Each structure stands twice: as structure tokens, then as C-alpha cells.
């Protein structure tokens, strides 16, 4: 209120005028002057007292209170009654009146008292200023300016604060703000309210305000819901003098108050009562409906007529439009007619006359409206493009907006997860389409997927367990270690490939050393705060990873290389999940490199707040350059040149390298060699021979473009000429699949035939020839060693899209395609009968994955022999591929797949091809004659009286005495496993029984518990493996249910056999299990049967060779083995029982009292018999339909399971 003169409301509205006059009388009684007549306020009278600029506080505060009280009464008069009230700074004085906590007299006297106290410090050189920045930035500016006399006075919004204090120090802070481009405005006031300088008037303030409260000693509690901006919370206690001193001395927590208000009434309409809107912009920033923020008055601009009345009427009109129907418009524009007959009931109901539109539950539109949403990026009807999610569309890679990795992570956290495990990014999700793309976010047990239009984009596992909090980051210590410092100039260095929009450019500072980085970045600031209620905002999460693309961090200075996320071991929330998880203050991100290769970086990432508290961590974050891998390779094909001319030591080194278990089968071809490598590993397979590259490769037994790597060993100087280096890449092009690599190692030294040494010019020649042939240089270097020098050159085959290798197959434009269906082989016969058997034809058989695909694989191998002139090919597709999509896919297959007769297409559009590998033959099982006595075929049944039994989930381990049936077992003590025991007698097949010999000295109370554990111990690694004495040496075993009888026995036996056993309890804690994934297990033994444990076990097991045994599983557990392979249980117990002698468990058994078997039984009347002796049973063995293609289909299924080579990821 910085201008005197008439208020139009004073002349127009009698209620407003009467209220001002009553308040002015109170002011005149105490001060001795009139606001209306002496100061010329409100009414038509001119001021008789000259006023300084700015107005003194003892005039500003009372006049503001008079105006606000009058406007509040006018709003009540026209029907606008508040559901909730709050005040800002001086506005809390009038709040006392608006909430019903105090009278008009008390409020005006309180404003006068506060004004007098404030006036006393106007000469103390204090002031205030408004800053358009976060509170964290304001605090930082104050620290930079070393201004201890400045405080944050008002938290107005997430990006707007006010500061208060000494005038000179305020000016210093403003100069620092201007240097950083922060908008700042110095306020017209001499009172540094809400700062430490208020202590100068503390005594006088408390005395004057205390007298007011002493005079009005009635109840001063709010009568309607009231929110305090002193605390930011709802106010339920009474107003008192202390509250108003704290109001003047403490900061205004308007942001907290707004959060409370919007939570209490989410769709509120806010009306600001002030002579001119000051708070409206702050309120709009903090509400979901910014258009519903109104003001009841507006100060006119210069050379503009009065605007107060139009502002008031516009406010009432907008209020009505927004659904408030209680405005008394006849009181706004009174007339004789309105006084007689017009009232509120004559107005129509908002917005129009109601009309019923029934929505039935089976209507798609109704179902869509009622469908629950897990979150903004996780619901059934999710559609995404750059229009639906504009903030995500600012993530631009190579000119195309794509979904950031943080977007996929956010989708899964919206399931309510606390930890994501083995996150794999399979393919990009472009959001550039004009029409929004449907995206499916699915959860199966603990396995999740994100897909669209049949393309798999990301997958992994999740858990809802509560992770423990990590120790705080020591930010100063990390910053001291990271000596190199970079500012926001990081982003121009990324623009060659990563064109981030403004909201993604959040990194402020980067501190680096060779192994780690500390990134300072913006948190959930105002520009993205009002986006959807994300948990981990994708923009913030993605920005926290930008430093991994910074060349100063990954040290790859090739301008053609950029990095994209490939997979993450674990993403963990260390605090309870909630919307807007990240704070609005600065974030500190710590990156630590834990693994590095020329084409990838593995790092651990921790995101912390300003105090170092870790909010979120990413373990094992893998960045792969240039491409998103669609899956891991399971088969690697290597072509090796020059090894026959190298030293024996190099051959030995290569053999040792290939012998490493990398989780993939390796096939190699030794060029011009007469013998294979001396490698005994089952996953390495070699061929050797001569190859003429001037002739077609296929007749020589090699498929073009089928190798993943070409390795060349040569002496230095051998490839110094352009023509020689060109020949390297010429034949490498013939061999390599797109994406494959050529690796050249040259050696030099006195012992070499050519003693010349490698030079940078030689590497330049190689790089030039590589680029001309469609290769991209990845790595080049020269190393010194004791005997000489070696040079390394690594390049990847990256042909352009118009390269010849990407041309479609010959004849693919109009192929012959037949869709195979199970049981309709006659239709296939009819299709083929119309074709010329002597003509060379390309025929494609298309089938869906699963049983049909396996059968088609077996069938096509038979047809190859029957129709040798035809080139029969098989393509197996996912069920999501339509017939048209399958045909289009076949027509566009590139020429480099021409040599493949069978392909398997993945959901993401990748291509897998089968490769046949040899498997080690199984060992014959040792049979103990004493455990399997000769039994006549006519005596297959035995009646056993139970001595002792113990349950293990779906079955029982038992010990009993044979008391009928097979005569050879009569009176013998036996043990075994059965699904059910209904009494003291059971009838079982003899094949299910294990004979307990006297040499084992029976202790029944212990044997009954051992029986099941011994079977599990022998069967888990496979019985043939268990029978080998050294099979468990050094084997890593994960054992659950460690406290159970089964777990105890298994642990004892495995440890005695040399295994490394990691034991956990029976509680299924997926988060804890995932922490064990750093080193793979060879064997997992567990009593869990649910799908979540099965899924998480696949992460823990060693790829290809790992084995999972669930003893209680219905399809593969002990009871299932007992029914399907009864002799296996007996063999298992025979193999395991002898191991008890000399063990700690045997000593434990020996402490039990030996039981006399003959006197241990009690008579039981009930018996259970398998067959009725008075009936005759007849049965037959079903004939097996033997067909060659069925046998082939089973082999095909086995091969498909064992090994698949991913062409797309090479």
C-alpha cells in the first residue's frame, strides 16, 4: 500500500465503507489521527500530512489491516465464505480476525502496536530483497558474500525466497546473485522483518503486543480451519503474544503452509486479499490448478483508470465458473427489483442444468476411467510420445527423442518396489512418433518387462524388501580427492551426440580423478516440480548419469564414440518410496569406476542430498558405447590367423585365455594350421585348415559373415604398406558379422625374423585402411616389453546402412512362405507337392516359438534329405508377431544371414541362430549290490510298518520294518520317501525302499531326519556327479533353510566334500539374496518353490553350467523323483549313507540311545494296500509313435536350450 487516495470499493460497497469507518475510529482513538481524513486513505479526502517514501511502518501495518478486514467482510456479505484461511507475514494480524480468533478492535490495536515497534528500527539500516532462486542457492549466495547479518526471511515457493538483514550486506548478496544470472529485487522497506535484526525492538514489541493481549483476554482460538505460516501446519492452539513475536522474528514458511493447504483440500480456489496481488504467483507455482488462484483487488497502472472494481467483479465471475454457486450477485448490483424478487435460488446450477449419463461397468470408456494407476508411467493404458510427456522428449540422442534409462526405472518403481535387480536395457524406445505409442509395463512374480509393439525395451527383477541405509558420503573428503574441477561447460562437449534439452542440463559442477567423480546438480527444482508425481523423476535420475558420457571421465577422446546405459546390477531406494522422492535442493552424485574395458565402463553410483545422506544407489552400472545390446551372446566364433608362425608361448597364452569360463561357448578356426589348440575345456571347440579367400567360402566349410572376431598375429613391418593392410580388412569383411571386431597384434624384437619395430605411422596406415573398409577404430597402442615391442589395433566392423552386407537376400522380395501348425502336416505336404522338386527354390517355413517351433525344426531337417534341390529355411517367431509382420520380416532379412538355414526371432526383433556343440558324456552311476538286492518281478510290493517319520513339505522321509509282501525284504529295516502317510502302515513298491544294513548301526530318532537330507545332498548336483569323489571341490553352493534338518545334513556333507557353502535362512528376502550375486553359484539348493525364488536364482547361478535343485518342487522335487524314477532315491541314499562315517554328524548320532528295532513297534489295526488281492488287474504299455521328424524336434529343442547365437548383438 504505497499510494494514498480514494478506494472505489469505499464509494461502491456500503459494507466495505462501514467497515473502514469503524476501523478508522479505533485507529483515531489510539493514534489521534484519522486514516480517512488526515492521511487521505480510502475516502475522497486529500492527505493533510506529507508522507515519506516508503511509508513508515506505523502507518503501513494499520492501514493494511483496515483494508483486509473491510475486504473480508465484503466477501462474506456477497456470499464468499472461506473453508480455510492463512496469512503471510503481516497478513497473520488480519488472520486473527478472519479465523474468528479476535475482534476488530483487537486486530486494529495489534496492527498499531506492531507498527510502532517496527518504526523504532527503521533507522538501523535494515532492508529486505526478493530472490528468484531456491533456498539452497540463497544460502550459498549468503555464504559466498560472507554476510552473517542476512537471513532467509520468507520461503515463498520452491524457486522464490526473500532475504532480510543489514542493507549493505543485502546489496553484496544481490551483486553475487546478478553475477549468476539470478533475478533479485530490493524491497521498499526499512524494516528487516523475519531476521536477527528484529532483536533490536524485541523488548518494545513484546511490551506493546503483550498489553493488547492482556486487554483482550477472551478465547482466541481459530473458529474455522486455519493454517499458520509460522509453522507451515494447521493451527489448533490459541493465538497469544508469543506467537506474534515469533511471527515477526522467524521466517515465513509459506511453501510448507501451501503444501498443507493443498493436501487438506486438493482442488482449492485461493483468493488473495491485498490491495495488489503479491502472493498469487507463488501460490500458482504450488498448486495443481494455477488458474484457480484469484485476487480481489488490483492497483491500477499509470495512465490507467480505476481497476479495483473490475478486478473484484472478475474474481467473482471466475469463482462462479470454477464451481462456487453461493455468490449473492444481487448484493453486488442491488436494485429495487432484486430486493423484491431476485435471490440466489433463481440462478441455474453450475455449470448447466444437470443431465444423467449412465456409465456401465462393461463399457470400455468406463473401464478405462476406473482402471487403477500405479503411477504416471505405469498403468494399463499408457501411451507415450513427445506431446504426452514433453519433459521426457528433451532426452535427444543423435537428433531423436528417446526414453531415458531413468524413465524405464521409474516405470518399475511405480509398482511399489524398493530395489530393482539385474536391470537390462534391451532396445531404445523412440518417442518421436506423431501418434502416442502404447507401452506395456508387466510384472510376473518378481520379473518385470517394458515392451511396445512386440519390442522388448527393458527387463529385470524387483523386490519390496526394505534395504538398509548406507553411511553418509563424506563429501568434503571426496571433493579433496577429485582434484580436477569442471563447471557446466560439460554440456557443450556432449552435443556431438547427446542433445539434451534445458530441463536435462542439471549438472552444476563436476570434480574428477582417475577413478571417481563427484557431481553437483540441481534437484527437483521448479521447472520440473509440477510434472507428474514421479517417484524418481526421470529427468533428475538421467542427469545424475551424464558424467559417464563426459570424455574427461571415460577418457575415450574419439569424437565418434558416445556411451549409453546397458545394464545395472541393482537400483536401491534407501528411504521409503514416495512421490517426488528427490529434494528440491542440490544433489551430490558419487561415481566410482569398478571396471573398465575399451568399449564399456562399470561403475557404482550413489545419489545423496546436501548432507551426504544417500537417497538412491546404483550398483554395477554398465555403460556400453554406441549400441544397446539386445541380449548376451551365448556362442562366440573366432577366426585366428598367423598363430602357426608365432612362438609357442603365444599359442599357450591364447589357449589359457580361451579356457576362461566367460559364460559362452567358444568356437575357433585356425587358419593354415595343421592341428587345433591344446584346450580341454568343454565350452571351447576348434577347427583348422587352409582357406582360399579368392574362392567362395561356403564350399570350404565357412559361412560368410558368421564370425564375431578375427584375430591376427603378425610380425612388425608385415602390414606397413597400404595394400597389405587393405588385405586384412578385405578378408575380415567376408568373415565378420556386422558389429564384429578385428584384432591385430604385431610383435617385434631381436628374436623375430623381421627385427623392425612398430611405429605410429603403421597404426595410422591400419586405421586409414580400416575406415575405408567400413571399420571403426576402437583402440590402438604400442607397448614395450623385455624382448621387444608389441602393437595393438582393434576395430569394429560398422558398415553403413547402404553397405552390400545389409542388402536383402537374393529372392527375398517374393519368397515362398508356409506357416507351420502342429498336426497339419498334411497341409504342408499338399503345399510342397505343387512345387518342382528339381528346381532350386528358396522356401521358408514360419512357425511360432515353443512346441511348434521345435517340431518344425525337426521336420525341416528331414525335408532337407528328401528335397536336396531346395533351400529350405526355418524362421521361428514369437506369438506376438502377426502373419503380415512375419512375412515382412523375412523379406527384409540381410544378405549376411544367407548362410543360416534356421533363425529364431526374439520379441525385440533380434535374430538368434542355433549352433550345435558337443556336451560331456554322463558318467555311469555306481550301483551297490548290497543296496539293490535281486527282487523277483512278481514281488514288487512291500508292506511297511512305520517306525519313525519326518515331514518336509510335500512328503515324508520314513524308517520302517517290512512286514509283508516281498519275502526277500521280510523283517528288514528300510528307509525311503513317500508322498503321504495315513497311518502306521504303508504299502509301497520295493523300488522305493532303501535297505538299512546293520553296519550303519541304526539310531532311528536321527536316521528319520537324515533320510531326506541325504537324498537331497546326492541328487542336487546330479547323482552321477555326486558319485565322483572330487565333484564338489571348490564348488560354490547357495543353501537355504540352513536351520532345517535337511539344510543341516546337506551343509555337513557338502563342506566335508570341499564345497564352499553359503547358508541363509528360510525367509525369502529377495533384496538380501540379490546382494550375493557378485560371484555366481554353481549350485542352488532350496526348499522354496515360488516363482520369485526361481527367477532370482537365475541371476545367482553361473550361466549355462549352474544348477538349481528345489527339493519341495512338485515337478522336480523329491516326491516327483520318487514317483517317476523310484530307483534314483534308493541310489542316492546308497551313495550318501557311507559318507556319515567319520563325520561330525555321525558323532552327533552316536550320542543317541540305540533303539531296539524288534521292540520298537506297536500294533496298528489300519492298513493301506495298493492292490486288492481279490481282483485281477490288466494293463498294457502304450506304443510310442516313432517318426524321424519327432526325434529331430526333440534334438532341436535340446540344441535351442543349450546354445543360441545372437546375430544382432555382434
Any overview of this molecule?
With 1210 residues, the chain is an alpha/beta fold. 29% of the residues lie in helices and 23% in strands. It contains 35 helices and 47 strands. A hairpin with a 2-residue loop joins strand 12 (396-397) and strand 13. Helix 3 runs parallel beside helix 4 (91-98), helix 4 runs antiparallel to helix 5 (104-119) and helix 27 (1004-1019) crosses helix 29. The chain is elongated. The active site is at residues 395, 542.
Give structural attributes:
elongated; Malonyl-Coenzyme A Acyl Carrier Protein, domain 2; Thiol Ester Dehydrase, Chain A; disordered C terminus; 35 helices; 1210 residues; Rossmann fold; alpha/beta; eleven-stranded antiparallel beta sheet; disordered N terminus; 5 domains
Task: Please specify the SSE layout and strand pairing.
Elements: E1 5-6, H1 8-12, H2 14-31, E2 41-42, H3 57-77, E3 85-86, H4 91-98, H5 104-119, E4 126-131, H6 135-144, E5 150-157, E6 160-166, H7 167-179, E7 184-186, H8 202-215, E8 226-227, H9 241-249, H10 254-264, E9 270-272, H11 280-285, E10 293-295, H12 308-321, H13 329-332, H14 336-340, H15 364-370, E11 383-384, E12 396-397, E13 400-401, H16 405-413, E14 419-425, E15 437-438, E16 440-444, E17 447-452, E18 455-463, H17 475-481, E19 484-486, E20 507-512, E21 516-521, H18 526-529, H19 538-543, H20 551-554, E22 563-573, E23 587-597, E24 600-608, E25 614-625, E26 635-641, H21 648-658, E27 665-671, E28 684-689, E29 707-715, H22 722-735, E30 736-748, H23 760-772, E31 775-785, E32 788-797, E33 816-819, H24 825-833, E34 842-848, H25 851-866, E35 871-877, H26 883-891, E36 902-905, E37 911-914, E38 941-951, E39 956-965, E40 973-978, E41 985-989, E42 993-995, H27 1004-1019, H28 1023-1026, E43 1036-1039, H29 1045-1056, E44 1060-1063, H30 1070-1074, E45 1083-1086, H31 1091-1100, E46 1107-1110, H32 1118-1124, H33 1126-1136, H34 1144-1150, ...
Parallel strand pairs: 1-2, 3-8, 9-10, 26-27, 26-29, 27-28, 29-30, 33-34, 34-35, 35-36, 43-44, 43-45, 45-46
Antiparallel strand pairs: 4-6, 4-7, 5-6, 11-15, 12-13, 14-18, 14-22, 16-17, 17-18, 19-20, 20-21, 21-23, 22-25, 23-24, 24-25, 30-32, 31-32, 36-37, 37-47, 38-39, 38-41, 39-40, 40-42
Amino acid at each position: 500500500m504505497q499510494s494514498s487516495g480514494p478506494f472505489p470499493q469505499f464509494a461502491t460497497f456500503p459494507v466495505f465503507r462501514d467497515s473502514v469507518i469503524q476501523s478508522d475510529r479505533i485507529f483515531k482513538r489510539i493514534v489521534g489521527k484519522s486514516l480517512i481524513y488526515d492521511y487521505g486513505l480510502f475516502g475522497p479526502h486529500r492527505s493533510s500530512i506529507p508522507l515519506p517514501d516508503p511509508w513508515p511502518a506505523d502507518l503501513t501495518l494499520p492501514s493494511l489491516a483496515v483494508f483486509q478486514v473491510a475486504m473480508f467482510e465484503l466477501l462474506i456479505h456477497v456470499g464468499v465464505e472461506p473453508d480455510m484461511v492463512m496469512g503471510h507475514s503481516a497478513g497473520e494480524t488480519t488472520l486473527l480476525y478472519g479465523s474468528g480468533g479476535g475482534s476488530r478492535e483487537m486486530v486494529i490495536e495489534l496492527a498499531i502496536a506492531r507498527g510502532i515497534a517496527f518504526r523504532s528500527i527503521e533507522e538501523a539500516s535494515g532492508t529486505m530483497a526478493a530472490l528468484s532462486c531456491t533456498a539452497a542457492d540463497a544460502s550459498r549466495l549468503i555464504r559466498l558474500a560472507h554476510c552473517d547479518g542476512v537471513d532467509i526471511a520468507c520461503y515463498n515457493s520452491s524457486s522464490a525466497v526473500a532475504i532480510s538483514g543489514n542493507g549493505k550486506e543485502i546489496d553484496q548478496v544481490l551483486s553475487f546473485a546478478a553475477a549468476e544470472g539470478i533475478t533479485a529485487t530490493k524491497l521498499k522497506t526499512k524494516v528487516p522483518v523475519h531476521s536477527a535484526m528484529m532483536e533490536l525492538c524485541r523488548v518494545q514489541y513484546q511490551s506493546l503486543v503483550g498489553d493488547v493481549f492482556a486487554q483482550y483476554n477472551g478465547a482466541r482460538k481459530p473458529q474455522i480451519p486455519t493454517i499458520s505460516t509460522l509453522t507451515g501446519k494447521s493451527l489448533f492452539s490459541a493465538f497469544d503474544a508469543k506467537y506474534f513475536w515469533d511471527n515477526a522474528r522467524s521466517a515465513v514458511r509459506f511453501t510448507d503452509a501451501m503444501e498443507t493447504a493443498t493436501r487438506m483440500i486438493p482442488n482449492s480456489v485461493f483468493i488473495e486479499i491485498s490491495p495488489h496481488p503479491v502472493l498469487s504467483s507463488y501460490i500458482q507455482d504450488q498448486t495443481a490448478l494455477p488458474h484457480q488462484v484469484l485476487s480481489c483487488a488490483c492497483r491500477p497502472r499509470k495512465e490507467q483508470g480505476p481497476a479495483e472494481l473490475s478486478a473484484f467483479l472478475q474474481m467473482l465471475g471466475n469463482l462462479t465458473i470454477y464451481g462456487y454457486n453461493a455468490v449473492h450477485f444481487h448484493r453486488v448490483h442491488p436494485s429495487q427489483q432484486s430486493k423484491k424478487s431476485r435471490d440466489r435460488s433463481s440462478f441455474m446450477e453450475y455449470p448447466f442444468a444437470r443431465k444423467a449419463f449412465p456409465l456401465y461397468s462393461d463399457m470400455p470408456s468406463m473401464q478405462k476411467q476406473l482402471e487403477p494407476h500405479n503411477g504416471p508411467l505405469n498403468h494399463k493404458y499408457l501411451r507415450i510420445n513427445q506431446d504426452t510427456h514433453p519433459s521426457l522428449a528433451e532426452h535427444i540422442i543423435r537428433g531423436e527423442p528417446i526414453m531415458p534409462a531413468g524413465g524405464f526405472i521409474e516405470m518399475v518403481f511405480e509398482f511399489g518396489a524398493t530395489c530393482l535387480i539385474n536391470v537390462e536395457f534391451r532396445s531404445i524406445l523412440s518417442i518421436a512418433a506423431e501418434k502416442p505409442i502404447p507401452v506395456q509395463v508387466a510384472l510376473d512374480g518378481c520379473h518385470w518387462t517394458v515392451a511396445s509393439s512386440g519390442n522388448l525395451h527393458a527387463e529385470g527383477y524387483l523386490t519390496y524388501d526394505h534395504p538398509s541405509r548406507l553411511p553418509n558420503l563424506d563429501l568434503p573428503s571426496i571433493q579433496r580427492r577429485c582434484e580436477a574441477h569442471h563447471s557446466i561447460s560439460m554440456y557443450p562437449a556432449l552435443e556431438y551426440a547427446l542433445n539434451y534439452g534445458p530441463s536435462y542440463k542439471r549438472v552444476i559442477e563436476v570434480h574428477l580423478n582417475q577413478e571417481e567423480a563427484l557431481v553437483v546438480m540441481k534437484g527437483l527444482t521448479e521447472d520440473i516440480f509440477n510434472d507428474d508425481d514421479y517417484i524418481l523423476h526421470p529427468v533428475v535420475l538421467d542427469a545424475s548419469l551424464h558424467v559417464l558420457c563426459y570424455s574427461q571421465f571415460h577418457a575415450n577422446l574419439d569424437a565418434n564414440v558416445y556411451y549409453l546405459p546397458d545394464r545395472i546390477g541393482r537400483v536401491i531406494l534407501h528411504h521409503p518410496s514416495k512421490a517426488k522422492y528427490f529434494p528440491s535442493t542440490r544433489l551430490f552424485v558419487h561415481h566410482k569406476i569398478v571396471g573398465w574395458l575399451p568399449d564399456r565402463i562399470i561403475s557404482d553410483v550413489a545419489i545423496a542430498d546436501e548432507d551426504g545422506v544417500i537417497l538412491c544407489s546404483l550398483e554395477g552400472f554398465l555403460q556400453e558405447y554406441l549400441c544397446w545390446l539386445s541380449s548376451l551372446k551365448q556362442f562366440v566364433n573366432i577366426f585366428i590367423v598367423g598363430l602357426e608362425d608365432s612362438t609357442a608361448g603365444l599359442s599357450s597364452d591364447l589357449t589359457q585365455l580361451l579356457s576362461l569360463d566367460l559364460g559362452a561357448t567358444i568356437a575357433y578356426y585356425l587358419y593354415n594350421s595343421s592341428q587345433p589348440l591344446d584346450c580341454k575345456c568343454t565350452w571351447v571347440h576348434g577347427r583348422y585348415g587352409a582357406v582360399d579367400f579368392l574362392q567362395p567360402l561356403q564350399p570350404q566349410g565357412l559361412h560368410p559373415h558368421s564370425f564375431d572376431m578375427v584375430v591376427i598375429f603378425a610380425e612388425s613391418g608385415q602390414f606397413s604398406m597400404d595394400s597389405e593392410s587393405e588385405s586384412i580388412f578385405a578378408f575380415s569383411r567376408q568373415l565378420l558379422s556386422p558389429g564384429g571386431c578385428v584384432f591385430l597384434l604385431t610383435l617385434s624384437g631381436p628374436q623375430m625374423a623381421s627385427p623392425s619395430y612398430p611405429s605410429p605411422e603403421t597404426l595410422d596406415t591400419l586405421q586409414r585402411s580400416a575406415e575405408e573398409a567400413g571399420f571403426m577404430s576402437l583402440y590402438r597402442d604400442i607397448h614395450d616389453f623385455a624382448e621387444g615391442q608389441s602393437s595393438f589395433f582393434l576395430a569394429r566392423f560398422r558398415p553403413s546402412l547402404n553397405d552390400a552386407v545389409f542388402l536383402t537376400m537374393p529372392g527375398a522380395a517374393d519368397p515362398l512362405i508356409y506357416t507351420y501348425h502342429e498336426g497339419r502336416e498334411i497341409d504342408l505336404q499338399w503345399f510342397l507337392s505343387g512345387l518342382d522338386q528339381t528346381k532350386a527354390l528358396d522356401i521358408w517355413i514360419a512357425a511360432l516359438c515353443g512346441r511348434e517351433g521345435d517340431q518344425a525344426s525337426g521336420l525341416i531337417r528331414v525335408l532337407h534329405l528328401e528335397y536336396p534341390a531346395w533351400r529350405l529355411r526355418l524362421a521361428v517367431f514369437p506369438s506376438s508377431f502377426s502373419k503380415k509382420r512375419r512375412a515382412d520380416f523375412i523379406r527384409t532379412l540381410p544378405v549376411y544371414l544367407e548362410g543360416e538355414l534356421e533363425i529364431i526371432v526374439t520379441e525385440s526383433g533380434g535374430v538368434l541362430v542355433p549352433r550345435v556343440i558337443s556336451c560331456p558324456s554322463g558318467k555311469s552311476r555306481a550301483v551297490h549290490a548290497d543296496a539293490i538286492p535281486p527282487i523277483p518281478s512278481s514281488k514288487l510290493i512291500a508292506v511297511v510298518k512305520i517306525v519313525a517319520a519326518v515331514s518336509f513339505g510335500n512328503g515324508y522321509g520314513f524308517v520302517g520294518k517290512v512286514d509283508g509282501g516281498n519275502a526277500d525284504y521280510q523283517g528288514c529295516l528300510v528307509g525311503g520317501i513317500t508322498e503321504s502317510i495315513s497311518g502306521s502302515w504303508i504299502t509301497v513298491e520295493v523300488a522305493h525302499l532303501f535297505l538299512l544294513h546293520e553296519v550303519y548301526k541304526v539310531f532311528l530318532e536321527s536316521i528319520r531326519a537324515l533320510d531326506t537330507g541325504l537324498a537331497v545332498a546326492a541328487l542336487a548336483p546330479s547323482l552321477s556327479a555326486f558319485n565322483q569323489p572330487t565333484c564338489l571341490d571348490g564348488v560354490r553352493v547357495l543353501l537355504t533353510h540352513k536351520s532345517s534338518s535337511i539344510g543341516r545334513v546337506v551343509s555337513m556333507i557338502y563342506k566335508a566334500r570341499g564345497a564352499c557353502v553359503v547358508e541363509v535362512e528360510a525367509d525369502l528376502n529377495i533384496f538380501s539374496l540379490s546382494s550375493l550375486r557378485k560371484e555366481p553359484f554353481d549350485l542352488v539348493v532350496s526348499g522354496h518353490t515360488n516363482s520369485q525364488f526361481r527367477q532370482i536364482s537365475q541371476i545367482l547361478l553361473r550361466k549355462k553350467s549352474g544348477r538349481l535343485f528345489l527339493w519341495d518342487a512338485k515337478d522336480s522335487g523329491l516326491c516327483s523323483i520318487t514317483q517317476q524314477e523310484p530307483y534314483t532315491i534308493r541310489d542316492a541314499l546308497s551313495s550318501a549313507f557311507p559318507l556319515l562315517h567319520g563325520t561330525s554328524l555321525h558323532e552327533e548320532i552316536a550320542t543317541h540311545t540305540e533303539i531296539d528295532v524288534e521292540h520298537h513297534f506297536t500294533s496298528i489295526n489300519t492298513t493301506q494296500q495298493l492292490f486288492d488281492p481279490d481282483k485281477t488287474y490288466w494293463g498294457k504299455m502304450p506304443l510310442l509313435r516313432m517318426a524321424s521328424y519327432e526325434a529331430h524336434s526333440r534334438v532341436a529343442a535340446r540344441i535351442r536350450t543349450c546354445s543360441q547365437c545372437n546375430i544382432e548383438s555382434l
